[in-house]
Design brief:
89% of the residues lie in helices and 0% in strands. The protein is elongated and about 45 Å long. It has one domain. α2 crosses α3. With 80 residues, the chain is an all-alpha fold. The chain has four helices and no strands.
Length: 80
């Protein structure tokens, strides 16, 4: 029973990371460009690269977590 609870919490954390990070990044979007001297398109590319990386890695999380539960926990720790 404990392993089902742990798996549920881990999957909920993974599902929560993308919307949380995007919502934390979008409000200061204009300020990031102004303070760093980057154009709007360059700042938009950083968000696009983040979302592309998150999408690609989500393809591997499922298969890796089936083989190695510790690997999933380690990836959650790295994101923090």
């Amino acid at each position: 029973m404990t392993s089902i609870r742990t798996l549920t919490v881990n999957l909920a954390c993974l599902a929560m990371l993308d919307p949380f990070a995007t919502d934390a990044y979008l409000p200061p979007f204009l300020n990031i460009g102004n303070e760093s001297g980057a154009s709007q398109s360059m700042v938009q590319q950083t968000l696009s690269l983040y979302l592309a990386g998150f999408a690609v890695m989500s393809l591997f999380w499922g298969t890796l977590s089936k083989r190695n539960r510790l690997g999933l926990d380690a990836r959650l720790k790295v994101f923090d």
